[in-house]
Amino acid sequence: MKYLIVDDESLILRDEARVISKVLEEKAEIMLADNYVDALKIAEQIKPYVAFLDVDMPEMDGLELSRRIVEVSPNTNIIFITGYEKYGLEAWKTAASAFLLKPVIEDDVREAMSMLRRPYTQKKLVREGLFFRCFGNFEIFFDGQPIKFGRKLSKEFLAYLVDRKGALVTENELRAVLWGDDEDTDAKKIYIRAIVVDIRKTLSAYGGEKVFVNSRGAYALNVGEMNCDYYQYEDGTIPEDSFRGDYMSQYSWAEVTAAKLNEKYWTE
């Protein structure tokens, strides 16, 4: 979980970080900023779970900073830190969860954390219904049973679209992925369209007719209609240990994403 603490006084900022870190979980990643410019850059980059903001700061006060942070990271919880009780009412008019009086103490931090407007709830990976598994070998299940397609390359076609996370992919790109450097023949163009028919028919049989999208010779997946371990892992809604280092292991083109996932896993 990622957190941001902002205070324009460096000594106080370090002391606040020391106290707050004692309350947070062991693996918490805490970023510090002593000005609004750095704070906004960090917020946009890491999308913190909670931002602890000093209210009384030069150039941009914590109240305005909170509004700017929520613009770039809508799910961030805001907790204000102030040396003056008079700021309490104004803080509550914003989307803040709580405010802390300086000097910050552990008990007050714990109470503030219990009042978060957007509490984190770790979701379980739902495997009922249509489920796209990317970790390990790629497979598509319905109620725990693997789906069988009528065309040999239909599953790899879908795997590549899953990897692209909703981006449209042209037929030319798909033919290059499925057949590599082989000559691009009319027979392959026809076969691509046969794969599309097979995918539509098969997914529709399992209630997934909204998943597959095509537009003028390009194809994509409607990720909002999908239950997929890769997407939920990226969103942080399933445990970190859901990924064990393998991603779509049967496809060589998936190695780029696998490398990125492993780099993220080992650096967090």
The counted number of beta strands is 11
Q: Which value, in Å, is the CA radius of gyration?
A: 24 Å
H/E series: EHEHEHEHEHEEEHEHHEEHH
Total DSSP helices: 10
Query: How much helix, percentage-wise, in residues?
Result: 40-55%
The rough form would be described as: elongated
Strand residues, percent: 15-25%
Query: Can you identify the CATH superfamily of the largest domain?
Result: Winged helix-like DNA-binding domain superfamily/Winged helix DNA-binding domain
CATH architecture of the largest domain: Orthogonal Bundle
Query: How many domain regions?
Result: 2
- Ranges where pLDDT stays below 50 over 5 or more residues in a row are none
Q: Which strand order do you get reading across the main beta sheet?
A: 2-1-3-4-5
CATH fold topology of the largest domain = Arc Repressor Mutant, subunit A
The secondary structure category is: alpha/beta
The major β-sheet equals: 5 strands, parallel
The CATH top-level class label of the largest domain: Mainly Alpha
Give the overall pLDDT as a whole number: 88
Distance between the termini: 10 Å
